[in-house]
Design brief:
This protein has helices at about 1-30, 35-50, 65-85, 90-105, 110-125, 130, 135-210, 215-235, 255-265, 285-305, 350-360, and strands at about 270-275, 310-320, 325-330, 360-365, 375-380. The chain is an alpha+beta fold.
Length: about 375
């Protein structure tokens, strides 16, 4: 709540500062002897473009429209000022144009970035022409200052845009890698069931002559294995796209393997406990068990990386209303003795979410009440 309040106060202070600067701009324009309405229109358009909440933008208010219209109004105001020597400029218009330049470089579509950035940058560089059109030396000095501000704004926005792009690529690669892993797991699940079908079919063929009365249980087993194979494919195949590359085969865990994970995690300074409800069935689908195993594995790895000061880690398995709930919680406060390079890229939960949602489940990760962290996944049983 404190951080939200702080952001709200900061946002209110920013709006108040911009409005105060806008009054200064209008006052400058009046002192220049010209009408203030061109400046007022420019500030109104620019202020609306900067301050309009991004979550409430209508579809037609694209980044390129937000950044070009106020810049064109500013340039028109500059031309009018040079022709009539009436309108000056102030800090609000400069701040608005720099903000719009930032938006253009960071958020405009690739084919529009250069055009919008050039237009906003030109509007900034043209501002000194209003009061100093007759004094070229002073005008060029102010233009140089404007050029420095434009360069710094473009550099910062371009850096953030590159970081956004890198993160998007990293998330996409993580999701694709997880889909490849799911494809490998699906292969294992189906191979398991189909192998069972093959074995039981061979048994059935042998029993046609020796024990026809005992065929029914064998045929029932074949039917059950085929049903489970089809269910595994139906739950998983929807997310397998662009998986032409060969995937590395990884061992598939299950609910029984979670006990080994917990036992191997415990250290003299970190206690780990597994609480498994007696209601958890043993015959859950293999892909559900493997996903639950991966959730626990990734959560315990994150405890090692990000909560090395945790003293108690609890893994819980519950089964209610035909849904399996897996949770891993710790009492850490964020301390870790691992080097920065061992903290990971922060995309493990992205892969887990891809896997869990592919099976129709839900994944939640976040702080507990007071302190500590919890990862909770719910799967349809």
């Amino acid at each position: 709540m404190k951080s939200v309040s702080a952001r709200g106060c900061a946002g209110g202070a920013g709006v108040g500062g911009l409005l105060a600067a806008a009054f200064v701009d209008v006052a400058y324009s009046n002192e220049g002897g010209g009408p203030s309405w061109p400046m007022a229109v420019t500030l109104l358009l620019g202020g609306a473009a900067v301050l309009w909440p991004a979550a409430r933008h209508p579809r037609w208010l694209t980044p390129q429209l937000r950044t070009t219209v106020p810049a064109l109004a500013s340039l028109a105001c500059t031309v009018d000022s040079v022709v009539r020597s009436g309108v000056l400029f102030g800090p609000a218009e400069l701040a608005i144009l720099l903000c719009l330049l930032f938006v253009a470089v960071r958020h405009c579509p690739r084919k529009w970035v250069v055009a919008c950035a050039v237009l906003d940058g030109s509007a900034v560089l043209a501002l000194p022409a209003r009061p100093f059109a007759g004094d070229r030396e002073t005008m060029f000095a102010f233009m140089f200052i404007g050029l420095v501000l434009v360069g710094l704004t473009v550099a910062f926005a371009a850096y953030l845009r590159s970081q956004d792009y890198r993160r998007t690529v990293a998330v996409s690669e993580t999701r694709r890698a997880e889909r490849l892993a799911i494809a490998a797991d699906l292969h294992d699940f189906v191979a398991h069931h189909v192998t069972g079908i093959l074995v039981q079919t061979q048994v059935a063929r042998m029993m046609t002559d020796t024990g026809p009365d005992e065929l029914d249980p064998v045929l029932a087993g074949i039917e059950r294995a085929a049903t489970e194979a089809l269910a595994s494919m139906r739950r998983t195949v929807g997310v397998l796209r662009d998986t032409d590359d060969a995937a590395d085969r990884r061992p598939v865990g299950d609910l029984a393997g979670i006990a080994g994970l917990v036992d191997g995690f415990a250290t003299p300074v970190q206690r780990a406990a597994l609480h498994r409800s007696p209601a958890v069935p043993e015959d859950l689908p293999h892909e559900i068990q493997a996903a639950a195993f991966r959730v626990v594995q990734e959560a315990l790895t994150n405890v090692r990386r990000h909560a090395g000061d945790a003293t108690q880690v609890t893994v819980a398995l519950r089964y209610e209303r035909s849904r399996l709930e897996v949770s891993v919680s710790d009492d850490g406060r964020g301390g870790s003795q691992l080097p920065a390079a061992a903290h990971g890229g922060g995309f493990g939960l992205v892969g887990l979410k891809e896997r869990v949602t592919a099976l129709g489940g839900e994944l939640h990760a976040g702080p507990r009440g007071g302190y500590g962290w919890e990862v909770r996944a719910v799967f349809p049983g």
